[in-house]
Design brief:
The protein has 306 residues and is mainly alpha-helical. The chain is built from nine helices and no strands. The longest helix is centred in the middle third of the chain and has 29 residues. The termini are far apart.
């Protein structure tokens, strides 16, 4: 699902904040990939490498929320979106938050630099409080953008749904996880529903971004090249009389620009043109007076033949 969202974001070539928001989805996908190894027991909790992978996971989670926070201010255009300045500020900020969260996590697990897993206050701030602060600021900033700059109020619904899924995810994980685990005889726990609700909240982030960004089709580039073929009957050559034009002979009218045997150096053969008389008709390349001057029905057949 994250891959589908990334594909659709990348396909909107001229949308505002495209490169910034796609970085958030890349980081979310990386977080979920690492969570598979940690939550499923592929990396055992008794392993010496488990604290290090967990510290990397904590750092990525904190950096992902930092990326979401900064994306909340892209719409204010403090720095023009998609420029190296905007992208590198985002990358540096996420890298700095990742480094701080990683250090706090591994120092807490290994009990050095004054940190201790018996009193994980710093880790609680990094892993619990920081994401909550980022979500609150992001929601407030997007509400300001919608209310002050957009005529459409439907994006507020996407924001509210995202907040609802995020809230349900936290409540299920921290309040009802053990209850769910005992109720279904340890087949699943609250972590399953937490992951599902978090995915739905991220999908609402995509839905909201997609609803407030419009692509300029004049400058967009499709993934498939459009093939344009002009089929104009007025320019098509006839099949009779040795390649003669369907509108009055080999060198007459528009047919004189073709590739017939009587055309020399693509010059317009004005002598053979039938347009010196009355204004031409689309039928046969001759004038209406030529048709109806002798009464009706016309004695001259179509194509200039009697």
């Amino acid at each position: 699902m994250t891959g589908i969202m990334i594909y659709h974001v990348r396909s909107k070539y001229t949308a505002v904040g495209r490169k910034e928001i796609v970085m958030f989805f890349y980081m979310f996908a990386l977080v979920e990939l690492l969570a598979i190894f940690l939550d499923s027991g592929i990396i055992p909790t008794a392993s010496n490498t488990y604290p290090w992978f967990t510290a990397v996971y904590s750092g990525l989670v904190a950096a992902t929320y930092c990326c979401l926070l900064i994306n909340g201010f892209v719409g204010f255009q403090f720095a023009e979106d998609g420029t190296p300045m905007s992208l590198w500020l985002l990358r540096i900020a996420c890298l700095a938050v990742f480094g701080v969260a990683f250090f706090v996590s591994i120092a807490t697990f290994q009990k050095f630099a004054g940190f201790n897993y018996a009193k994980p206050m710093a880790l609680w701030i990094v892993y619990i409080l920081w994401p909550l602060i980022c979500v609150v600021i992001y929601v407030i900033s997007q509400l300001i953008i919608v209310v002050r700059t957009l005529d459409d109020r439907w994006p507020i619904g996407d924001i509210l749904f995202g907040v609802g899924f995020f809230t349900v995810a936290q409540v299920v994980l921290f309040a009802f996880s053990v209850t769910i685990c005992h109720a279904v005889k340890h087949y699943i726990d609250g972590l399953f529903f937490f992951t599902l609700c978090m995915l739905l909240s991220v999908m609402m982030v995509y839905k909201y971004w997609d609803s407030i960004t419009k692509e300029d089709l004049e400058f967009s580039v499709g993934s498939k090249a459009a093939v344009w073929e002009v089929k104009d009957p007025l320019l098509a050559a006839g099949g009779g009389n040795g390649g003669a034009s369907a509108y009055g002979g080999a060198g007459a009218g528009y047919g004189s620009y073709g590739t017939g045997p009587n055309v020399m150096d693509n010059e317009y053969d004005d002598n053979n043109s039938q347009y010196h008389a009355a204004p031409g008709s689309l039928v046969g390349g001759v004038g209406g007076e030529q048709y109806y001057s002798h009464g009706y029905p016309p004695q001259m057949g179509y194509g200039g033949e009697r």
